[in-house]
Design a protein that fits this description.
Strand order of the largest sheet: 3-4-5-6-7
Helix content: 25-40%
Shape: elongated
Largest sheet: 5 strands, antiparallel
Strand content: 15-25%
Radius of gyration: 19 Å
Distance between the termini: 56 Å
Length: about 190
């Protein structure tokens, strides 16, 4: 870093932003593991990294407590909404675009946060400790039973990653992989 402690190059600016996120905001890998998937952080990084005219857009609630199960969406309408990039994975209040350089600093720091989270979660490898089977919303192609996907226990519900391992919950033996794009997830199988 320069003698006056002001970051000058891109790597220094990204490191300074990541340090600010941890020190000032408390967004440590442990915090992120409780609230986010690595994929969510990667999507957020991609949104900041994209040129503004390539981001697309959608309208989302500025603030909505998605953890509350006692509130039905029509009960909280009308609520303040905000326009965010089409791939933005969080509430609207967290989208804070700035100058192009500042957005790239945020993108780099979010990439670093996603990498830190993947390290904390064991590199994304499917290991018994810290992993769990969750219901996948597609039936087994062999027997028609419920299908489960193996994911880190800290991952948000319904966040699937390309290549996640899938099994038939009733044990017919079929194993498949999840394929994903920005619109959804599906099973890849040869049957």
């Amino acid at each position: 870093m320069q003698s006056n402690d002001t970051p000058k190059n891109g790597a220094e600016r990204i490191a300074a932003e990541r340090l600010r996120q941890v020190v000032e905001e408390g967004w440590t890998p442990a915090h992120d593991a409780e609230h986010h998937s690595p994929e969510a952080l990667e999507l957020a990084a991609a949104c900041y990294a994209m040129p503004p005219d390539a981001r697309g857009s959608k309208v989302v609630p500025h603030h909505y407590d998605v953890t509350r199960t006692d509130v039905v969406l029509p009960d909280v309408l009308p609520f303040e909404v905000v326009e965010v990039p089409a791939l933005w994975p969080f509430e609207g209040r967290w989208w804070k675009p700035s100058t192009r350089k500042r957005d790239l600093e945020k993108a780099g720091a979010l990439c670093a946060a996603a990498m830190d989270l993947r390290v904390l979660l064991g590199g994304g490898k499917a290991t018994p400790q810290g992993m769990e089977w969750r219901e996948f919303h597609e039936d087994c192609p062999r027997c028609g039973s419920r299908v489960e996907v193996l994911v880190p226990s800290t991952r948000m519900p319904n966040w699937w990653t390309e290549g996640d391992m899938v099994r038939c919950a009733d044990g017919c033996g079929v194993e498949m992989a999840v394929s994903c794009d920005h619109e959804g997830a599906w099973l890849e199988h040869g049957e």
